[in-house]
Amino acid sequence: MQDEVSGETQGSSTSNAMINIAKSKQRTLTLPPSDIIESYGIWYIMVTIEVQELRCDHEEADTRLLLHTKHAASYEDTDTVIIRSPDTDVIILTISIIHCLQANLYQHITGRNGRILHVNRIADGLGEKAAQALVGIHVFSGCDTVSAFRGKSKKKLVKIMLSEESHIATFHQLGMEWEITDQLLQRIERFVCQVYDQNQGNNINDARYSCFRLGMNDNSLPPNKDSLVQHTKRANCQASVHRRCLLQTVDAPNPHGHGWLCSDTTLTIQWMTLPPAPDSVMKLIKCKCQKSSCETSRCSCKSASLLCTELCECVSCGNKAEAEDDKIAATSSDESDTE
Predict the structure, then answer these.
(1) Predicted confidence (pLDDT) per residue in 97-154, tens digit
(2) Which residues sit opposite 81 in a β-bridge?
(3) Other CB atoms within 10 Å distance of the CB of residue 309
(4) Within a domain: residue 280?
(5) Which residues contact 157 (CB under 8 A, 6 or more apart)?
(6) 3-state class of 164 per DSSP?
(7) Are 74 and 255 in contact (CB under 8 A)?
């Protein structure tokens, strides 16, 4: 941190210079002249102080920034803190934790459409519980680590949440604990049904079937319950990390089992635990590939890890049983030649 030097510190007439640093409390440091920096006629000194309150296990800059904000607001003579960041996560976090800070908090959003937000005023307009629920609905509707609902904007999900106290309570609870309860899942199911305009439904599988009967495009259907559970686990895990932004120790668990799969050093999303369809249905898949020889993921059979059958209308297919046998035979022949 950089502080203006007060007192007479011209030149190096003495081996040590006594420098007063303007802070909440006056401190006098004895430093060698070589550590004093002069810029435009003003003497400065760069002082590094280890602050135990800022030691933490945070992995994200977003949450670490809020811990620093809490520390800055803790000084008795600090009544205003300004954060400079264009990040949406930071905006949501500042609104959700403002009730824990005894200071006016502003966020300077940088960039082309830069502006300054008075965070206290926004949080007061929402109410404390709704402000805290923003963390839950933000990650649930899609953030850096959690997928979004295709065709459903964040604005729509927030609007539905604010329309009912029960929805606010649901997302206020999301992320409070590392594990989700069956009761919370039931309430989230009901919320997602409303997102897809199935306002009378409480079962997401029924809502998905209803949308299918209405002719909704496959890519726009609601998720099934298995996929929704995994999505909720990921959202809950991320919300739990965000809600602990003011703590020095987050102590986050291994993401495996929280909507993620860990193997060695690889972390992948667990989209579902059930097969995409029963085997009897999968065998009815057929393709009509004309140019790709059924060797790319654009082939519906190939993408489902199935071989093409007599039902398919493909041309020059390279994904039939005979083609696979030919590939195996060719590979064995090459290995024999090598030996």
Answers:
(1) 999 998 999 999 988 888 999 999 999 999 999 999 999 999 999 999 999 999 999 9
(2) 105
(3) 16
(4) no
(5) 137, 140, 141, 149, 195
(6) coil
(7) no
Integer Cα distance of 272 and 236 in angstroms: 16
The model's pLDDT over 162-192, given as tens digits with 9 standing for 90+, comes to: 999 999 999 999 999 999 999 999 999 999 9
Task: Residue 174: name the closest of 231, 223, 125 by CA.
Answer: 231
User: 123 in helix, strand or coil?
Assistant: helix
Quickly list H helices, the chain: 61-73, 88-97, 119-126, 128-140, 154-163, 165-173, 182-195, 204-213, 225-243, 279-282, 300-303, 321-338
Question: Is 61 in the same domain as 37?
Answer: no
Same structural domain, 171 and 292:
no
**The token pair that represents 204 in the structure block:** 């997401």
User: Positive or negative CA dihedral for 275, 280, 281, 287?
Assistant: positive
Report phi then psi at 149, rounded to 5.
Answer: -90, 120
Q: List, in sequence order, every beta strand (DSSP E) within 266-332.
A: 266-269
Do 45 and 58 fall into the same domain? no
Strand 266-269 relative to strand 260-263, pairing: antiparallel
DSSP assignment letter at 56: -
154: exposed, middle or buried (C-beta count within 10 Å: 0-12, 13-18, 19+)? Answer: middle
Structural domain including 313 reads: 286-338
